[in-house]
C-alpha cells in the first residue's frame, strides 16, 4: 500500500487543527489596545499549541520520509494519533479561557501525553514492516525522545495537581527538545 | 480520467468533516474537573463519529488503491457519498447534546445508512468500468460487508423507535466489523 | 509553471467551502422529530449549494485535466473564482434562514452569476496559452454552457425582484444542465 | 528532503485561513437589502484580506517552484510564516467589526508586517542551501519587493496612530505592487 494518501489526509487534518484553534481568539467588543489584554492568556495558549501541533506535523513529515510501506494497522495507528491531536483546540481553549488554572492545565498535558503515546504506537506499528537496515529502522533507533516526552508529560500531569507552573514549564521543555529537527532521520536520508 | 484529484478532494472534505465535529465540544464555563462531566455524552458521540468517519476514509483509501480509471458518473457518486458524510457533524451534535434520546439516535443511524448506500452506489459505479480480472473486481467480490452494513443500519433505525440502546449497539457492531481492515483488497494489491 | 499546486489549493478551498456550509445547520434545542422541521428551508438551501459547489469542483476538475500549462494571470483568475465561491456559505445561510424571501434569493443568484463570470474569465485566460489543436481548445469549443449559465443567472437575478419562485426554478435549471458531465472534455481526453 | 509535503501542508493551512475568514460575515437578522449595509466594512475588510492571503499563496507558489531542496530549518521558517498568516482572520474581523478605527487598523498592519518578515526569513533560509546559479538564487536577486513591503508596513503601522486613512492606503499600495506576478521567477523557470 502506498503512503501518499496517508500523508495527504494527515496533512489535511493537522492543517485544519492548527488553523481552527485560532477561532477561539474571539474578536473583543471594544476597539482599544487594552481590549486585547484579556485575550493574552488565550493567545499564549494558542502559541504553545501552534508550536506543539507544528511539531507533530514536522515529526510526522520526518517519519514518513523514511517510511517505505504501510498496512491497515498503520492506517489505524495514524487515525488514532489524529484523534488525540483533534482534541488540542478544545484543551487549548479551556486552558486559555481559564487563565491557566489547575484542571485545564492538567487536561492539556493529558492530551499531549496521549498524543505522545499515539505517536509512539504509530512508530512501533511501522517498525515491524521495515527491515532492520532501512532508513526508518536506523533513524528511529531506540527512540529516546519519544519515550522521554511521554514520561515527562505523565510526570507533568501529576505534578499539575500541586503546581501549575511546574507543569507548564515541563510542557515547554518537551516542546523545546523537539524544536531541534530530528537529526537522526535527516542524516540517514 | 485520472483518480488523483478525486482522492485529494475526498481527503480534503473528509479531513474537514472529521475535524470540525470537535467544534461541538464547546468549552465549559467552569474550570473544575466536574465541569467536563456534562460534556461526556457529546464526547462519546464524537468518538463514535470519529471512528465512523475514519472508517469511511479508510475504506475509501482501500477502494481507490484498486481503482484504475474513473468517469463523470464516479465523480458524482463520490460527491453524493461526501454529501451524506457532511451531515455527520450535525447528527453527531444533535445526538450528543440530547443525551442519546430517541429521534437524534434515529437520525444518526439514518445518516449512517444513507452513507452506506452512497458507498454501495460508488462501488457499483466503479465496477462496470473495470475488467473482471482487475484488482478492484477481485477485491470487491460480492461485497458482503457493504450490504450487511446497510441492512443492519436500516434495522437499527426502525428498532430505534422502541429501543435506543439496541440501535446504538447495532451502530457499534457495524463499526466493529469494519475496524478489521479490508483483507480482500490488501491481499489482491 | 506546473498546474498541480493550483489544483491542490483549489481542491482545498472548495472542500472547505462545501463543508463549512453545513455548520449553518445549527443543532435544534428540542429532541423531537418536529424540531427538525424549522431546519427544512436551511437544509434545502444547503442541498442546492452543495450541488452547485460540487458542480464547480467537477467542472474545475474537467477543465484542468485538459490544461497543459498556466501562468501568473491564470493564478489570479483562479483566485478570483475562489473568492466568489467563498461567499456561497454566506448567501446560502441568508437564503435558508429567511425562508427563500426576495433579497436573499436575489443575492444568492448574484453570487452564482459572479462565480459563473469568474469561471468564464478563467477559461478565457487559459485559452491564449494553449494551441488551437490542444485538448483544452477542442474541449471548450464555443463554451455554450458557460455563456448560457451567466445569461440565465442575470435574468434570474432581475426576475427575482418580482418572482422568487421563477428565480429559484432558473437556478435549479442551470444546475441541472451542468449535472450532465462535460462530454466535450471527456471525449477529447 | 522533498518539498512536496511542505507545499501540501502550506496549501492546506492557507486554504483554510482564506476560507474561514468568511465565517466572520455573520448572516444579518433582517431579509432586506439595507440589512446588508452594516456588513459593508466587514466585507471590505474581507476583500482586502482575501487579496493579501491570496498574494501569499501566490508568492509561496512561485517561490517553491524554484526550490530544489529543503531542510529542518526551512520547515520551521515555513511554519513561522503560517503562524502569522493564521492571525489574519482575527485581525480582519477586529478591523471590520470596528469600522476601520485606529487600533484594529494598526494591529492589522502589524500582522501583515510580521507575515512579511516571516516570508523574508523563509527566503533567507532557502538561499544558503541553493547554489548561486540555481533558479531560486537568480529569481530572488536582491529581493527588493520583500524588503520594500516590510518597510512600508512598518511605516504604515506607526502612521496609523495619527492617520488611519494613510495606513490603509499604504496597505493597498503594497498589495497592488504584488498583484503583478513575480516576473523574476517566471522568467527564470
Automatic annotation (TrEMBL), chains A, B, C, D:
InterPro entries per record: TMEM175-like
TM annotation in the entry: 9-27, 39-58, 74-94, 106-127, 148-180
Keyword DNA repair (UniProt): no
Transmembrane helix is among the record's keywords: yes
Sorted UniProt keywords: Ion channel, Ion transport, Membrane, Potassium, Potassium channel, Potassium transport, Transmembrane, Transmembrane helix, Transport
UniProt-annotated location(s): Membrane
Topology term for the membrane: Multi-pass membrane protein
Pfam families cross-referenced by the UniProt entry: TMEM175
Protein name: TMEM175 family protein
Amino acid at each position: 500500500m502506498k503512503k501518499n494518501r496517508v500523508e495527504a489526509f494527515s496533512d489535511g487534518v493537522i492543517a485544519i487543527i492548527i488553523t481552527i484553534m485560532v477561532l477561539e481568539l474571539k474578536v473583543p467588543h471594544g476597539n482599544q489596545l487594552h481590549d486585547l489584554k484579556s485575550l493574552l492568556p488565550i493567545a499564549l495558549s494558542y502559541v504553545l499549541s501552534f508550536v506543539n501541533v507544528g511539531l507533530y506535523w514536522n515529526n510526522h513529515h520526518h517519519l514518513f520520509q523514511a517510511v517505505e510501506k504501510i498496512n491497515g494497522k498503520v492506517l489505524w495507528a495514524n487515525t488514532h494519533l489524529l484523534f488525540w491531536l483533534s482534541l488540542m483546540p478544545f484543551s487549548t481553549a479551556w486552558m486559555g479561557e481559564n487563565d491557566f488554572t489547575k484542571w485545564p492545565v492538567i487536561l492539556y498535558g493529558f492530551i499531549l501525553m496521549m498524543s505522545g503515546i499515539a505517536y509512539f504506537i504509530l512508530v512501533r506499528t511501522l517498525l515491524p514492516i521495515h527491515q532492520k537496515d532501512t532508513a526508518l529502522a536506523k533513524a528511529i533507533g531506540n527512540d529516546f525522545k519519544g519515550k522521554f516526552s511521554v514520561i515527562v508529560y505523565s510526570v507533568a500531569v501529576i505534578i499539575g495537581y500541586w503546581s501549575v507552573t511546574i507543569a507548564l514549564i515541563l510542557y515547554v521543555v518537551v516542546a523545546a527538545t523537539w524544536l531541534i529537527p530530528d537529526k537522526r532521520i535527516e542524516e540517514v536520508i
